[in-house]
């Protein structure tokens, strides 16, 4: 059996037919597997190519500058300014963050450092369940329960507002923020905590001054991934934000903006694509919006990934 | 000292409140859907064709349509996802190409679902002429869950100890024989968990199938993979947002059915994972 150890150096001719077949199969399979390994790159490139291919003809209708800085989105007049849609996505996401980041990060600290085992398990299960609820169901609850409530509280003509969207998106980005922040906090070496406690700090002082600052880049990454989730969310905002393309009127206009209907990039694509004629200016403009959305989320994810990598290097 | 102890007490109280707040949305959503949706569920609601422009009858074609889409998604995503994971754990050298693959997977996971929808429309529906169909929808959903399948399969493969592989190779097995007979069987539970989680995600997605597969109202079942079909999540969107006079019963009943299917898949995945962790011997 000693010669088997060095099997690779033996000529194929000296092998039994069964072994030879196994060897050929092995080489074949390894090629297939290597090819499938590259799938992710191929898909990412294809997405970019196919979005760009149908987005570029937009710029026969409007210039790149008009598209990126135009403050009016009126497909019926072939006016395609993306600013109202960017503003819609930006402010709805901002509102979601104002709610989800403080709650999500403190909840992560609670789970990782303070909660008794049973409560920790319960919270983790609840967060997994929340993450699993389809966005169309969240949108439906927003439409049926949250919107009438918000309409009543603020005495509005409609409950389908940016605020309703922010609230529902906050729910949807919380699982991401909590679970990734928690991972970052748990990854802080125990020695850091022991050192702080040995110096006489209380558990809370240790958390605030040592653990959380050490986990900072992971927590920032968690929040960025939450942003990515909120910016890309479609069905929920489509159903609860009322879909009117407006730009806030200066700083003073922000409160009325949140209490009125808005239109995000995602909702625009979802609502309009079904009604456009193939290869019409409107059709191409929607692909241009999709390409913009793709680039924005790509950058957010890239930065979040870098922050996560930095956070992992505790050994250094 | 007391004031520091008090500060800690107050801080911990605040932290536990935020824990409570995070539980509110999940509990509230499930509460409303169950309380309002359960009474709408009946055998005929689940097994009949819609009638009167979806105001009467059941949601059977939407349930079956979703089942077809998920079967297609499984067919495309599982082999590709597992092979890609095998590449990353068993074959990939540590180099720039592998790093690029990992970066691509992370970024794919972050691509918004509506962008997958646009892409699927551009590539499968128009460019490849599949039309709005079960095939185009399944392919789009398969791409969407591919990162989930790859990442969880990779984790499962990595959990198999290196000594298992060494033992098999030392007995003269080829690399593929080792993977097929030793590594895959020992990571099957983890891979299945990931696949079910991915399918659960696909079951609830609406944006990717809006332009690629889902029909507004189609009171019959698809006859081939090139037919479009009704689907539960899109049906919920239609009855809740697109129709002005759909009965509440249909809306809540559809939401209940969809949520239960998705939660059941998550539950099955959790049970398999828990059992596997308890039973594994290394």
Task: Tell me the layout of helices and strands.
The complex is a heterodimer of chains A (316) and B (282).
Chain A: H1 2-5, H2 17-37, H3 39-55, H4 58-61, H5 64-69, E1 73-74, E2 79-80, H6 83-114, H7 117-132, H8 135-154, H9 162-186, H10 190-198, H11 203-214, H12 216-232, H13 235-240, H14 254-258, H15 265-272, H16 281-312
Antiparallel strand pairs in A: 1-2
Chain B: H1 2-37, H2 43-47, E1 50-51, E2 56-57, H3 60-91, H4 96-110, H5 113-127, H6 134-158, H7 162-170, H8 175-204, H9 207-210, H10 232-242, H11 248-279
Antiparallel strand pairs in B: 1-2
Helix pairs in contact in B: 1-11, 3-6, 3-8, 4-6, 5-6, 6-8, 7-8, 8-11, 10-11
Detailed description of the structure:
The complex is a heterodimer of chains A (316) and B (282). Chain A has helices at residues 2-5, 17-37, 39-55, 58-61, 64-69, 83-114, 117-132, 135-154, 162-186, 190-198, 203-214, 216-232, 235-240, 254-258, 265-272, 281-312, and strands at residues 73-74, 79-80. In chain A, strand 1 and strand 2 form a beta hairpin. Mean pLDDT of chain A is 89; it is low at 1-7. In chain A, 74% of the residues lie in helices and 1% in strands. Chain A has 2 domains: 2-37; 62-312, MetI-like (MetI-like fold, Orthogonal Bundle). Chain A starts with a helix and ends with a helix. Chain A has a two-stranded antiparallel ribbon with strand order 1-2. Chain A is flat. With 316 residues, chain A is an all-alpha fold. In chain B, helix 6 (134-158) packs across helix 8 (175-204) and helix 8 packs antiparallel against helix 11 (248-279). Chain B contains 11 helices and 2 strands. Chain B is globular and about 70 Å long. Chain B has a single domain, classed as MetI-like fold, CATH 1.10.3720. With 282 residues, chain B is mainly alpha-helical. In chain B, strands 1-2 form a two-stranded antiparallel sheet.
List its salient traits.
heterodimer; A: 316 residues; 2 domains; two-stranded antiparallel sheet; disordered N terminus; B: 282 residues; mainly alpha; MetI-like fold; two-stranded antiparallel ribbon; 1% strand; globular
């Amino acid at each position: 059996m000693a010669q088997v150890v060095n099997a690779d150096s033996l000529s194929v001719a000296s092998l039994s037919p069964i072994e030879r077949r196994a060897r050929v199969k092995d080489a074949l399979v390894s090629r297939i597997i290597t090819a499938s390994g590259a799938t992710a790159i191929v898909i990412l490139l294809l997405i970019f190519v196919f979005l760009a291919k149908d987005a570029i003809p937009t710029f026969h209708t409007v210039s790149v500058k008009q598209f990126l800085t135009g403050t009016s989105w009126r497909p019926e007049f072939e006016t395609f300014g993306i600013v109202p849609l960017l503003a819609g996505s930006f402010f709805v996401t901002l509102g979601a963050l104002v709610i989800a980041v403080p709650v999500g990060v403190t909840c992560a600290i609670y789970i990782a450092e303070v909660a008794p085992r049973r409560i920790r398990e319960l919270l983790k299960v609840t967060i997994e369940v929340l993450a699993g609820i389809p966005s169309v169901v969240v949108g439906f609850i927003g439409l049926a329960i949250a919107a009438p409530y918000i309409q009543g509280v603020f005495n509005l003509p409609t409950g389908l507002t940016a605020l309703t969207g922010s609230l529902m998106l906050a729910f949807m980005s919380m699982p991401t923020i909590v679970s990734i922040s928690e991972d970052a906090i748990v990854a802080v070496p125990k020695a850091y905590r022991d050192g702080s406690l040995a110096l006489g700090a209380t558990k809370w002082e240790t958390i605030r001054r040592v653990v959380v600052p050490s986990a900072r880049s992971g927590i920032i990454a968690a929040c960025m991934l939450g942003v990515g989730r909120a910016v890309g969310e479609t069905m929920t905002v489509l159903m609860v934000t009322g879909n009117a393309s407006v730009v806030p009127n200066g700083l003073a206009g922000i409160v009325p903006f949140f209490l009125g209907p808005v239109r995000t990039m995602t909702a625009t694509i979802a609502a309009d694509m079904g009604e456009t004629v193939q290869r019409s200016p409107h059709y191409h403009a929607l692909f241009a919006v999709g390409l913009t959305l793709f680039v924005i989320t790509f950058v957010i994810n890239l930065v979040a990934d870098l922050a996560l990598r930095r956070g992992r290097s505790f050994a250094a | 000292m007391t004031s520091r102890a008090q500060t800690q007490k107050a801080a911990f109280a605040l932290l536990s409140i935020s824990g409570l707040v995070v539980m509110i949305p999940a509990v509230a959503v499930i509460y409303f859907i169950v309380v309002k949706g359960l009474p709408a569920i009946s055998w005929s609601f689940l097994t009949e064709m819609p009638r009167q422009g979806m105001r009467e009858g059941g949601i059977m074609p939407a349930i079956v349509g979703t089942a077809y889409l998920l079967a297609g998604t499984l067919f495309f995503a599982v082999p590709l996802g597992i092979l890609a994971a095998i590449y990353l754990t068993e074959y990939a050298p540590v180099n720039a190409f592998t790093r690029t693959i990992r970066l691509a997977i992370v970024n794919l996971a972050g691509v918004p679902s509506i962008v997958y929808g646009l892409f699927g429309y551009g590539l499968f529906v128009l460019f490849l002429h599949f039309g709005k169909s079960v095939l185009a929808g399944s392919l789009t959903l398969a791409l969407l869950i591919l990162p989930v399948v790859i990442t969880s399969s990779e984790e499962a493969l990595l959990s198999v100890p290196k000594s298992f592989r060494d033992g098999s190779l030392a007995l003269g097995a080829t690399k593929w024989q080792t993977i097929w007979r030793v590594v895959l069987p020992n990571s099957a539970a983890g891979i299945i968990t990931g696949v079910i989680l991915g399918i659960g995600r696909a079951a609830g997605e609406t944006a990717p199938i809006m332009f690629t597969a889902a029909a507004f109202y189609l009171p019959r079942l698809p006859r081939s993979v090139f037919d479009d079909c009704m689907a539960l999540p899109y049906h919920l969107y239609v009855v809740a947002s697109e129709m002005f006079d759909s009965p509440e019963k249909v809306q809540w009943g559809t939401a209940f059915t969809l949520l239960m299917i998705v939660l059941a898949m998550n539950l099955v995945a959790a049970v398999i994972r828990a059992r596997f962790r308890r039973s594994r011997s290394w």
